[in-house]
Design brief:
Blueprint: H1 10-21, E1 35-38, E2 41-45, H2 50-62, H3 65-68, E3 71-76, E4 83-88, H4 95-113, E5 115-122, E6 132-140
Parallel strand pairs: 2-3, 4-5
Antiparallel strand pairs: 1-2, 3-4, 5-6
Length: 148
């Protein structure tokens, strides 16, 4: 069951965009919080976009009970759009386990949004993780849609 992401009022988003970014709302948060703990996984995005957070919540919900504990966080780079970094909780996990986590998140991207711009799995170490274990770029079933 997906958690509901609290959205900021559109009027507040537009007012902040006008005040700070000459009316461009790309960098203005549409969610009412910065990050969220879902089944022990922190989901967050560069600009706190509600749609990105909702997508990542669904990704976490797709992870099986035997895999979710290995994921520390999923972060979306709002500047790129549909670009996700999955950071593992432990170093040196077996390749088949990391591949399974990657494929589960990858399939969730296809099912939820029709694809992704970039998908990476990192070892632990900071917001973006340490060493990259797996990555893929630019896979879409259809042309991506923009968020409002």
């Amino acid at each position: 069951m997906s958690k509901i992401v609290v959205r900021r009022e559109p009027e507040l988003v537009q007012r902040e965009a006008k005040r700070l970014y000459r009316g461009d709302d790309e960098k203005v948060a549409t969610a009412g919080f910065n990050d969220l703990n879902v089944r022990g996984v922190i989901v967050s995005s560069r600009y706190q976009k509600a749609r990105e957070l909702e997508t990542m919540i669904q990704m976490v919900e797709r992870l099986g009970a035997d895999h979710v504990g290995y994921v520390e966080r999923i972060w979306c780079d709002s500047q790129v759009g549909c670009s996700y970094n999955v950071v593992l909780r432990h170093k040196n996990l077996p390749d088949p386990l990391v591949r399974n986590i990657f494929e589960t998140v990858r399939q969730a991207c296809f099912d939820i949004d029709g694809g992704y711009s970039w998908l990476s799995v990192y070892e632990p170490g900071g917001l973006f993780g340490g060493d990259m274990r797996l990555n893929d770029s630019g896979n879409w079933l259809e042309t991506p849609t923009s968020e409002s």
